[in-house]
Amino acid sequence: MEIIILPDAAAASKAAAQILLDLVTHKPDAVLGLATGGTPLALYSELIAAHKDHAFDFSRVTTFNLDEYIGLPEEHPQSYHAFMHENLFRHINIQPARIHIPDGNAADIKAHCIAYEQAIRDAGGVDLQLLGIGSDGHIGFNEPTSSFGSRTRTKTLTRQTIKDNARFFEDDPALVPKHCITMGIATILEARCALLLAFGKGKADAIAATVEGPLSAMIPASALQLHPNAKIIIDQDAAAKLTFADYYQWAYANKPE
Ligand code: F6R
């Protein structure tokens, strides 16, 4: 794991966006795994700015989103389809046919999950998987006790996640769907690079457990310790509970060329 601690969320989002833009520069047909939520918003703004200000080309990029709520109409403003369209896709020149988001209204969800995994394989696998982290340590919607061997499937959200996400649903937990489709942990681990972002004090415990705690299904993000190319880019607040923070900063400052 490479732990990169930057002064604030803006600097961290810029650094993460640069990694993604460098990848697409070197591999214009890159396959990107994308996340929703508050965390990647500034990064998506950086991508939009790269397209608008420097004509950065996303036309050959393929994307796979991590997750989607079950039963929320695609046009609902809080569906992840609507989120991605509003916060990224409609502002860049990505081809609609290259966008993949789990279909939370599929008639046969089990078959859809199997087909989603196959589509990732058919695209050649994910080059870079962007991740946020829940306050309970979830990645995607792989809640605590998710198997490290899990693949794309349905999950039931924890009460904590429902509470955390109520801010997007008029602050009313009753409006948050209870079920979702999510890539599994094994699916995420197959990405050639995993890039996890976390900002704010509310993520400090989850980050400490992910980076320095034992591998545990209770902290699904700890599975990233098994990933040969995982980068954790965080702000000072999210780094607040890391015992080895000084070392990570020193290592980053002295990174070989
Ligand atoms: C969303 C996702 C989730 C979020 C996590 C953090 O696609 O996969 O794991 O990344 O719940 O959410 P925010 O960024 O809103 O704190």
What's the quick description here?
The protein has 257 residues and is α/β, with parallel strands linked by helices.
Structure description:
This protein has 257 residues and is an alpha/beta fold. It has helices spanning 9-26, 41-54, 80-87, 109-122, 159-165, 185-189, 204-212, 245-253; strands at residues 2-6, 31-34, 62-65, 67-69, 99-100, 128-131, 153-156, 179-182, 193-198, 230-235. The chain has one domain (2-253): Rossmann fold (3-Layer(aba) Sandwich), CATH 3.40.50. The strands form 2 sheets. The chain has a 7-stranded parallel beta sheet with strand order 1-10-9-6-2-3-5, sandwiched between helices. A 3-stranded antiparallel beta sheet has the order 4-8-7. Helix 7 (204-212) links the parallel strand 9 and strand 10. It is globular. The two termini are 18 Å apart. The model has no long low-confidence stretch (mean pLDDT 97). The chain binds fructose -6-phosphate (F6R). Fructose -6-phosphate is lined by residues 35-39, 66-67, 132-134, 138-140.
**Amino-to-carboxy terminus distance:** 18 Å
* Total helical segments: 8
| CATH structural class | Alpha Beta
Per CATH, the architecture is 3-Layer(aba) Sandwich
Radius of gyration: 17 Å
CATH topology: Rossmann fold
In round numbers, the mean pLDDT is: 97
User: What ligands are attached or bound here?
Assistant: fructose -6-phosphate
- Could you list the spans in which at least 5 consecutive residues all have pLDDT below 50? none
How many discrete structural domains?
Answer: 1
- The SS-based structural class is alpha/beta
**Morphology call:** globular
